[in-house]
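Last lecture ended with a question: if I hand you only a sequence, what can you say about the shape of the protein? Today we answer it with a concrete record. The protein is ABC transporter permease. Below, first the input exactly as provided, then the predicted structure, then a couple of comments.
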Amino acid sequence: MKKFLIFAAGIVAAIIALSMLGPLVGFAFSALLVYLGLHYYVKSNSGFGKVFWVLLGLIGIFTAISNIPALVGLAAIALIYVLYKKWNNEEVSFGKSNLMKEDDPFTNFENEWAKLTK
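The predicted structure:
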């Protein structure tokens, strides 16, 4: 029964993801415009160039706002990923990674900071 419910939820999520394909493509194009605007704004030396890249970035932001339903499609894709992991009996974790080791400089910094602030 559990596998059936996972399968049914996956089918529903796939249908939602496919129906949101248009807004997802529009959202990706908007993100590209925002990225290009920011990237080339920093590299630009002329005033005209900076104005042009800011306008391009603003166009990207406004088109991204109009494609807000794409977030539903992104959530459906994330749900498909989680359901796939559950189907294969793999652990799904969104917390701290198991890859963190004690010799990690950031972990050592946190430990030292905790010692100093006591």
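Comments.
1. Residues 21-43 form the longest helix (23 residues).
2. The mean pLDDT is 86.
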